[in-house]
Structures are given as C-alpha cells and as structure tokens.
Design goal:
Low-confidence stretches: 1-12, 270-276
Number of domains: 1
Strand content: under 5%
Radius of gyration: 20 Å
Distance between the termini: 52 Å
Number of strands: 0
Largest sheet: none
Order of helices and strands: HHHHHHHHHHH
Shape: globular
Structural class: mainly alpha
C-alpha cells in the first residue's frame, strides 16, 4: 500500500489533511472484516422500520420536514463533493495515465493513505444514508422497491468490499461519490424550492443509470481478462456477485427511466393527463 503524503497525477496535487496522512489502513480493514456481517441484521431492522413506519403514518398527516431535509441533503452533498475531489478525480487521472485495465485490476497497490481514508468514509456513509428513507416514510412519499433494495444491497456490499478490498472498488466509490454529489445537490435545491430546469431530474437519473451500466461493464471486462490469463485483482466469485448486484441495478434503473420519462412522455403526447 502506497502511503505517500500527496496525491499526484497529471501534475495536480491536492493538499492532504493530517487525518488522511495518519490513517492506518490494515487495522480498519481488520475491524471491518470482523463486523461486516452485522450489516445483514441492520438491513433486516431497516426493512422492518420501513414496514411499520408506513403503517404508523398511514392514519397520520404527512410531515413537511423541509428544513431537516435541506440540512440532511446539503450535508451529504458537501460530503459527496469532497469525496469526488479526492476519489473520482484520482480515478479519472489514473484512467488517463494508466488505462482501463489498470484501474480495474491493479489500482489497489497505487492507493495512498488519503485514498483509503476516503474509501473508508465512503463505506461508513452507507449506514447514515439509510436515513434517506425516513424522509420518504414521514412525508408519506411513494416508496419504490428500487429505493430500499438499492440502499440495502449497497450497504451490505460496500462493507463487504471494505473487509475484502479489490482494485475495482475505486470505480464503485468514485462513480457513487460523483453521482451522489449531483443527486444530493439536486435534492437540496429542490428542498430549498429553487426553480431548476426541467431536465435536471432526468440528467440525475441518466447519471445513475450510466453508473450501473459501467458497473456491469467492469464485471464483463474483468471476466474476459481472467479468461485470457491476465493478472487481475478479482476472482470469478467476486465477478459473479458484483455482476448480479450491478445487473439488477441496471435493469431496475432502466425500468425506472422508461416508466418515468419514456412512458410518461408517450402518455402526455396522447392527450392523457399525467399522474402526479
């Protein structure tokens, strides 16, 4: 593990905080390896809270929670932008300088302490992000299968990847940081009642769907590289697991996109009233 004190790539050096520089990687991986199965129990509790929370709110008025939502989404937006600057930018620079295969198969050995620090924060953030669902339940908004399924599987899989890290996790982390930076910024502005162009929501969904398509492409390319006998920091089991997860995300997001934008567009053109 590279633990140099500066992030270098393409001549761009980002300052490193003391917390990042002093981050000790292996003890945190060991800690996660011992405890990541707890995420399954937390996910079961999360699902129960959704079920009983919706029943509790069924006979009650929806809460506004506009200010808490602004603070919640704004905090996650700032966190995601910081992660984007640290991880997503590094990923782009590595992709430019070393190519696709290196970022998928070898980049783990090139990560410095500040990268590991943000990868670890990224994984830990998946726990509080479950709190997104509380706003949906308390505001009595529509709860989709995609929402809670995505939260649970990302939560469990992220903690597993931290316990047994692979090089391609830099892709998962980098893409997720960048997409969440846009998504939570959008949510924050919406909660602030800022008038946004009509295409913003679609653009966020396109970014989310693209993330899932790239996730599937990573698994297919990793499988091809392994079959060609190339050295790649993964295994057939890891590929199968990640392919199932990202493949399901891809199908669900494509279905959501079709239903939200393509189907509604055709309905509106037919002169029918769009459902609110």
């Amino acid at each position: 593990m590279n633990s140099t004190g500066a992030e270098e790539g393409g001549g761009w050096v980002l300052p490193v905080t003391q917390y990042e520089q002093n981050f000790v990687v292996q003890p945190h991986i060991d800690w996660m390896r011992e405890r990541w199965p707890i995420t399954i129990l937390i996910s079961a509790l999360y699902y129960l809270l959704i079920t009983y929370g919706q029943r509790y709110m069924a006979k009650r008025s929806a809460l506004s929670l506009r200010i808490p939502l602004v603070l919640w989404s704004g905090t996650l937006a700032v966190f995601s932008w910081l992660g984007t600057l640290r991880i997503s930018v590094f990923l782009v620079l590595m992709l430019k300088e070393h190519g696709w295969e290196s970022t998928v198969c070898e980049v783990r050995d090139k990560l410095s302490t500040q990268h590991w620090f943000w990868l670890y924060l990224f994984v830990l953030s998946k726990l509080p992000e479950l709190g997104d669902t509380a706003f949906i339940v308390l505001r009595k908004s529509k709860m989709s299968f995609l929402h809670w399924y995505h939260h649970i599987t990302v939560f469990i899989y992220s903690f597993y990847l931290c316990a047994y890290p692979r090089s391609n996790m830099i892709w998962y982390c980098g893409m997720n940081f960048a997409v969440h930076a846009l998504m939570y910024t959008y949510y924050t502005l919406r909660a602030l009642k800022v008038q946004l162009p009509g295409g913003c929501a679609m653009f966020v969904t396109v970014c989310q769907t693209t993330q899932m398509l790239v996730g599937v492409a990573i698994q297919l390319s990793s499988l091809i590289l392994l079959q060609q006998g190339r050295r790649c920091d993964t295994s057939n089991r890891d590929i199968a697991c990640a392919f199932c997860i990202y493949g399901s995300y891809m199908l669900l997001f494509l279905h959501f996109f079709y239903g939200k934008y393509c189907k509604e567009s055709r309905t509106n053109k037919g002169g029918l009233k769009k459902e609110s």
